[in-house]
Amino acid sequence: MREIEAKTITEAVKKLCIDACYYLNDEILDAFRKCKEKEESPVAVDILSQLEENARISREGQFPLCQDTGFAVLFVELGADVVIKGGTLPEAINEGVRQGYTEGYLRKSIVSDPLERKNTGDNTPAVLHLEIVPGDKLKITILPKGGGSENMSEVRMLKPADGAKGVIDFVLERVSKAGPNPCPPIVVGVGIGGTFEMAALIAKKALLRPLGSRNPKPHLAAIEEELIERINQMGIGPQGFGGRCTALAVHVEAYPCHIASLPAAVNIECHSHRHKEIVL
Amino acid sequence: MAEVKLSAPLTDKDVESLNIGDKVLITGSILVGRDSAHKRLIDLLDAGKPLPVDLKGQVIYYAGPSPARPGNPVGSAGPTTSGRIDPYAPRLLALGLKGMIGKGSRSAEVIEACKKYKAVYLAAVGGAAALIAKSIKKAEVIAYPDLGPEALRWMEVENFPAIVVNDTKGNDLYVEGRSQYQR
């Protein structure tokens, strides 16, 4: 068994929160550049340049890329041979979020009760997705998720007869209705199959794939290709002012499902696609 | 597409001269508040009590900034989704509010109220929050500090960049822009 101190986890999570909110990953900056080359609208090109400039200011001045520094969503892969000493995993993670959001001047956007709506003041609790995997490592991935794009997401229980076309129509409808609201250019995570909650979870996990990568299964990759093309024909464009570049990427993930079901989920992510990971 | 310099607060003449797609640079004092602060303003109106601010000619920016680092007036401060304020906006427009800044589509009621009361809806670039913060020179909480990032604030801005989405004639840049590039 390998021992990992809870305070090591707290330190790592704190740094991940701050880094994710200040430093935009290169894959997004590359995608902005590619969009500018394809874009036909001068307004859209100007918006994309502003997003590049925003990323530079954030990186150099240590400012959050977006004032909405999100819900701290964490995916943790815990090796079966790891023992955590000096605390529990959820405690260690929440303490890291608390310290990261406070010391990093990140916005506290969480209310303790969805109806009473009193701010918790430290952005906790986090949303934690834990998976036990073989080995003696601990992998932590953070995806600070903004409210504006999350609000444009949806789970729908389709009929098996709806098939691939039903899924595609659902995704297109959702992106079209979202229009300018989720801060396009967006990243679209699609989950097909599983149960009600599993569809949503794999849609969110899909966001974490390398940007623009294709699902190894050809029939799912074909759906990704069709969706990105048709979404970018919608004309919504950066910020919804019109243009060619509405989505930076579409990632589809699938999971086995019940003979009676075809769950589908669309998780929309804004252009401020912030995620960082560490392996301890 | 014109680039227009505006000084806040605004007059009827200022807003009537604007058209969708115009880029504006705003200098002056603007209010800052999100849906929670709006709800409290509407509750005051419902109770027949005075508002903490006179809305005549004012511009309100839908935003909840991140905390300021020492030495800065504000942290990052981009717009939030305006749709959540739609149920509250027409009543404030009726009281003389002239401008709203946010991101995302407005309801038919808000677009109609912009025509009726001569007001405009402007979009700031969502997610360009660190860049936008450069145009904010001062910020001060004026009401509801218990709401934290959602408190009602005044901000002094200099060349704050935005684009006209809904003008006083009922036009909508989101609809026009999209149809121009749809295939």
Structure description:
The complex is a heterodimer of chains A (280) and B (183). In chain A, the strands form 3 sheets. A 4-stranded mixed beta sheet of chain A has the order 4-2-5-10. In chain A, strands 6-9-7-8 form a 4-stranded mixed beta sheet. In chain A, strands 1-3 form a two-stranded parallel ribbon. In chain A, 48% of the residues are buried. The model of chain A has no long low-confidence stretch (mean pLDDT 98). Chain A has helices spanning 6-22, 26-38, 42-61, 89-103, 147-150, 163-178, 196-206, 218-231; strands at 2-5, 71-79, 82-85, 127-133, 138-145, 154-158, 186-193, 247-255, 262-269, 276-279. By secondary structure, chain A is α/β, with parallel strands linked by helices. With 183 residues, chain B is α/β, with parallel strands linked by helices. Chain B has one domain: fumarase (Alpha-Beta Barrel), CATH 3.20.130. Helices cover 26% and strands 27% of the residues of chain B. Chain B is built from 6 helices and 7 strands, in the order E-H-E-H-E-H-E-H-E-H-E-E-H. A 5-stranded mixed beta barrel of chain B has the order 2-3-4-5-7. The longest helix of chain B has 12 residues, at 35-46. The model of chain B has no long low-confidence stretch (mean pLDDT 97). Chains A and B meet through helix 3 of A and helix 5 and helix 6 of B.
Give the SSE map:
The complex is a heterodimer of chains A (280) and B (183).
Chain A: E1 2-5, H1 6-22, H2 26-38, H3 42-61, E2 71-79, E3 82-85, H4 89-103, E4 127-133, E5 138-145, H5 147-150, E6 154-158, H6 163-178, E7 186-193, H7 196-206, H8 218-231, E8 247-255, E9 262-269, E10 276-279
Parallel strand pairs in A: 1-3, 2-4, 7-8
Antiparallel strand pairs in A: 2-5, 5-10, 6-9, 7-9
Helix pairs in contact in A: 1-4, 2-3, 6-8
Chain B: E1 3-8, H1 12-16, E2 23-32, H2 35-46, E3 59-61, H3 89-94, E4 99-102, H4 108-117, E5 120-123, H5 129-133, E6 136-143, E7 152-166, H6 173-181
Parallel strand pairs in B: 1-2, 2-3, 3-4, 4-5
Antiparallel strand pairs in B: 2-7, 5-7, 6-7
